[in-house]
Amino acid sequence: MRHRSAAGEAVARSARRLTAPRLPYTKPVPRDLRRPCLAGLLPPAPTRFAGPLATWWFAAAYLMLVTVRSVVHLVAPDGGAGTIATLDITVEGGTNVVALFGQWGAIQLLLAALLWLLLLRYRGFVPLVLLVLLLEPLLRDVAGRLKPLETLGTAPGAALNWAVVPVLAAMLWWSLCSERKPEPAG
Questions:
Q1: Which tens digit of pLDDT belongs to each residue from 24-81?
Q2: Which of 87, 113, 155, 162 suits 122 as a labelling partner, its CA being 20 to 30 A distant?
Q3: pTM of the full predicted structure?
Q4: Is the CB of residue 172 less than 8 Å from the CB of residue 134?
C-alpha cells in the first residue's frame, strides 16, 4: 500500500477540484447547423472551399447579374441613367450624369472582374465575395441617403436592394459554415 504525505494528499485534492466535471453525452451538431466561422473570410488555403457548393453557385449567378449591370452602365448611350435609373438627363448637366454613369460602370466592371477571379481561381474566398456583394447595396443606400437623387421613377436597384440583401446575408452565413471536406488543391 502506497502512503502519501500530507502535502501530496493536498496536491491531489486540489487537482481533483480543478478537473472539469464530466458532461453527459450530447449528440454532435449537424454540420449545416454549426455556427459560421469568420476565419472563412480569409481562409488559410484559398484554393479550397469547404462550404456548401450552393453558395458558390449563388455567388456566381448574382455576380453574373452584377457584370451585366456593369456592362450596361459602361456601353449604353445614356449609361443607364435615364433608361434604367429614371434620372432626367435632359436638364443642364445631364451629359455629366451620363458620363458619371459610364465611369461607374467601368469601376463596377473592374470590381466584378476581381470577384470573378476570386470565385473561379480562389474558391476559398466565396464568403469574402459574398461579403463584398452584400456590402455594395448597403453602402449604395448610405450614399443615396447622404446625397439623394431626384428620379422620375423607381430604379431597379432601389426596388430590389432590400429583397436581395437578406438573401445575400443568408448565403454569406451559410458559406461560413463548413459542410464538407475541403476540395483538393489544384
A1: 555 544 544 467 888 889 998 899 998 999 999 999 999 999 999 999 999 999 999 9
A2: 162
A3: 0.76
A4: yes
Residue whose C-alpha cell is 450596361: 72
State the Cα angle at 179 between 178 and 185, rounded to 5°.
75
What Å distances lie between residue 79 and 61, 62, 72, 107, CA to CA?
A: 23, 21, 7, 13
88 secondary structure, DSSP code:
-
126: left (phi over 0), alpha (psi -120 to 50) or beta: alpha
Backbone angles phi, psi at 111, to 5 degrees: -65, -45
Whole-angstrom distance, CA of residue 154 vs CA of residue 182: 43
Which grid cell sits at 28? 454532435
Closest CA relative to residue 102, chosen from 127, 115, 84 = 84
Rounded to 5 degrees, φ, ψ at 58 are -65, -45
Phi then psi for residue 43, to 5 deg, are: -70, 150
Torsion of CA 23, 26, 30, 34, to 10 degrees: -30
Q: How far apart are CA 79 and CA 70, in angstroms?
A: 9
Q: Smallest Cα–Cα separation from 81: which of 99, 63, 106? A: 99
